[in-house]
Amino acid sequence: MTLVLVGTGTDVGKTVVAATLLARYGLEIPLAYWKPVATGARDGRDTATVEALAGDRAAILAESYLFDEPLSPHLAARLAGQRIEPAVLLADFERHRAGARTLVIETAGGLLVPLVDDRDGDGGNAPGGAGGPRGGPGAGGRTGVTEASGDGRGWPFRLPSAAASQSPSASPLTSPSLSARRSSGGAAAGAVTAASDAPAASGAPGAAYLQADMVVDMARRASLSCLVVTHTGLGTINHTLLTLEALRARGLAVAGVVLDGPPNRENRRAIERFGDVEAIFELPHLVPLDREEVAAATRHFDRHGHLAPLLRLRRHVPARGDRPGEGPRGSGPSRRRGPLA
Q1: Of 2, 140, 286, 323, which is least surrounded by CB within 10 A?
Q2: Torsion angle, CA of 187/190/194/198, rounded to 10 degrees?
């Protein structure tokens, strides 16, 4: 099993939640943390933060792509003179999941941020694009900066070719992913199966590739569940319900929701009710943010062990009380209704 931390946006607490999760379960279940694409490295690396907070509890894997600028991945890559290659991400995913540890993956920003948009700017053919080095602070130069700053076009939520190809009567829950790459052989929403041998996105020029596409492509290759991380303040109900709908429209399993920040009972109740979420975890702001504070938070985070069966599923790590030779107790999330902390 692979657990993917999906945020409702940027700066909602995914990195701290990842560190807390590793600290909570890392001693009893072999885990590995991976952030495939990261931006904003000039202000610090999330991978380094997780290593500082919980590096003794799990293996910390290097990013596949790392960029200086705190921007959407597709734009940060273009400014670095590079192009994110979906095939590279999926090859790294296969390599990491082949190890002896359960993968805990942290995504970059929200679910629908673009990783590739070859229609934008120079078409992804900047120096170092397809064959250049993969990320790294300062890598690839600053090709495209002038063009980006002078480009007044907006980026449409749905690319024209994708919008035109849809039936007017298509349901929002069964329509294809909001990505032009679907015309090159990607599966429609809701058709994700771990056993499928569907090909990965080609990443051909003119294609778009959202972070959601990456998660779907990973789910075609392995059992995968998504843990949604959101804040507790104003706007979180809408952001969380939209993220849950986008996940479910793609056939992706939802492990639960983590509310990061000061407790807000009404927002929690609304997300549970309208999002039909079975597991809601709470994590207050950790001050100071250090290893000791994270370790203390593990005493309250997922105290009912809701996530344990998902994390054990990869290698059938025995739970306390299992008889020799038995698998984990339960093959998925608990069916308990109501909020969990």
Answers
A1: 323
A2: -10
pTM of the complete model: 0.73
Beta bridge partners of 281: 258
Over residues 151-201, the pLDDT tens digits come to: 333 433 334 334 333 333 333 333 333 333 332 333 333 335 433 444 445
Q: Cβ neighbours of residue 107 under 8 Å, at least 6 residues apart?
A: 4, 5, 6, 7, 14, 35, 36, 37, 211, 215
Under 8 Å between Cβ of 217 and 90: yes
**Which listed residue (14, 35, 78, 101) is catalytic?**
35
Domains of the chain: 2-140+170-312 (3.40.50.300)
Annotation says 35 is catalytic = yes
- How do 208-210 and 114-117 pair as beta strands? antiparallel
Q: Which two tokens stand for residue 83?
A: 């192009």
